[in-house]
Design goal:
Elements (H helix, E strand, L loop, with lengths): L9 H30 L3 H29 L2 H19 L8 H29 L9 H33 L8 H9 L5 H15 L8 H36 L21 H32 L5 H9 L3 E2 L2 E2 L8 H22 L6 H23 L5 H6 L12 H28 L5 H17 L2 H9 L2 H21 L1 H8 L1
Antiparallel strand pairs: 1-2
Length: 504
């Protein structure tokens, strides 16, 4: 049994997080495409909002950690976070309210603040469960299980989001097509050449209208955009429901979660020597320095990994053949690969490391993180090879969209997402475990927040990926990520011995 020898609170914590992640990944699966379709944004413009939001989520986790550490009420802070997130998702689900990109950004920031109150503090609670000597040796495995359940929620979220959007589009008499919103805006704005409007655009309009050629392409363009965008809005209702489920689970099992140890009053009968104070201060300093060294490395991992919802999503839309045999794919479908692989591989990786541990050959957590960076480099190397010879995005836009014959196989993205997920399993859950283990007791919430803050810096930089995607060759874009991951791997391995000493 996977939960054997783990604290009782792990299961409800994982289930509560699973509900929250279901809502979050419902949103993230469609966010980039929603912003581009709703507000007629370019990839770079959508990327700016995407990266700012994704960064805000994690930087506000630092604020959430400070709040919880200050009031010593992790559970109450988590509950407040769930409620705030629910409000943000509800606003996004209202087409009449989200009329400008700035209002949409406001709703996203509400979600980010709620996530900041929730995310790091729930991770801190899980870490506190393993401070007990009975469970201490199971800390890495515990965080891997916790991480697996995150992805059970994320695994199904894109499918449900797509179903809601596509069902509404179908109710309006249309079929889904990822390239049409951009073409509709080009037609409405008068930026489409007659060759494209009378050719490719007219053909796609007929295709999504059940084979009936629209008599008025202007009316079609406006109607299709309205149906497409409203479908996106209603998909966010899935996130609202998921948040309510998460809240119910957390409240029901609240008593199973640890409470912070109250501050101990100084025993007047014992005088602490200056040497003891200096020793404790030196140890705390070393621990904090080690944590920030790891934070510095993982910045570059998240900058690369979270391209899965940005440049890799754009690549799926612009360059990928969205069919396998007779099976029609959606752009968002690739977002499900990551959680599927996490759920499938986590028990295997836990068993593998357990076997190595019994033989005394299990690599340390810092070594595992370094290996993960190398695996991420392999994923982007595969994209480099698969993208050789593809036209630039500007060339694609000049001809409207690529024909099916010009597009790459979807298996390229399937393989890339698979390898990236393996890298993630070596870095994210084990990084959480490392932070939990090394953090000073009185700074657990803050250090978990700093881990997420490092993630935030990587996410704030995501838009650079979209800028490269639009301005240089596709293969060169992926080459940059290969280099970033390799340099991070080298940096991590150069610090391994020091990090291992600190973590003892």
């Amino acid at each position: 049994m996977i939960f054997k020898d783990h604290p009782k609170g792990l299961v409800p914590a994982a289930l509560s997080n699973m509900g929250e992640r279901f809502g979050f990944y419902t949103m993230m699966a469609i966010l980039t495409l929603f912003l581009m379709s709703k507000f007629n944004l370019s990839g770079t413009e959508a990327a700016s909002i995407y990266s700012f939001f994704y960064g805000a989520i994690y930087i506000l986790a630092l604020v959430g950690g400070l709040i919880a550490d200050k009031i010593r009420n992790y559970k109450g802070t988590i509950i407040a976070g769930i409620i705030v997130m629910s409000l943000g998702y509800f606003l996004l689900a209202m087409p009449s309210l989200i009329t400008t990109k700035y209002i949409a950004l406001g709703a996203l920031l509400i979600i980010a603040f709620g996530n900041g109150l929730f995310k790091g503090n729930l991770q801190a609670l899980v870490g506190q469960m393993y401070d007990n000597d009975q469970y201490r040796s199971k800390r890495d495995a515990g965080f891997q299980i916790f991480y697996m359940f995150i992805n059970v929620g994320a695994m199904f979220a894109p499918f449900l989001a797509m179903w809601v959007r596509n069902t509404f589009v179908k109710m309006q008499g249309y079929a889904y097509h990822p390239s049409l919103p951009e073409l509709c805006y080009q037609f409405i704005d008068g930026k489409m050449s007659p060759e494209v409007s009378n050719g490719q655009f007219s053909e796609l309009a007929t295709k999504v209208s059940d084979g009936v050629t629209p008599t008025n392409l202007s009316e079609f363009a406006t109607s299709y955009l309205d149906a497409f965008n409203t479908g996106f809005h209603y998909a966010y209702l899935v996130a609202v429901f998921a948040m309510l489920v998460s809240l119910v689970i957390f409240l029901f099992y609240k008593r199973t979660f640890p409470s912070p140890v109250p501050k101990v009053k100084t025993d007047t009968a014992h005088t602490i020597s200056k040497e003891e104070i200096k020793q404790d201060a030196k140890e705390i300093k070393q621990r904090i320095l080690a944590l920030f060294a790891v934070f510095g490395v993982v910045i570059f991992f998240w900058f690369s990994f979270h391209q899965n919802g940005l440049t890799l999503t754009l690549f799926a839309k612009d360059y990928t053949y969205l069919k396998i045999g007779s099976l029609q794919l959606s752009v968002e479908i690739f977002q499900s690969i990551n959680p599927f692989v996490v759920v499938f591989l986590t028990p295997i990786i836990i068993a593998f490391f357990s076997m190595l541990a019994k033989r005394g050959k299990e690599p340390s957590t810092p070594k595992k993180i370094g290996i993960g960076m190398g695996i991420a480099a392999v994923a982007f190397l595969l994209m480099v090879v698969g993208s050789i010879g593809l036209p630039t995005l500007k060339e694609v836009q000049e001809q409207g969209t690529l024909s099916d014959a010009q597009r790459v196989t979807p298996w390229l993205l399937f393989a890339t997402y698979f390898i990236l997920t393996v890298a993630e399993l070596f870095i994210s859950p084990l990084g959480l475990s490392f932070v939990s283990k090394v953090s000073p007791v009185h700074l657990q919430g803050l250090m978990q927040g700093c881990w997420l803050g490092a993630t935030a810096i990587g996410n704030f930089s995501l838009f650079f990926g979209a800028m490269m995607y639009e301005r240089i060759s596709i293969s060169l874009t992926w080459s940059v990520f290969v280099l970033v991951c390799l340099l991070s791997m080298v940096a991590m391995f150069s610090m391994v011995k020091w990090l291992e000493r600190v973590a003892k």
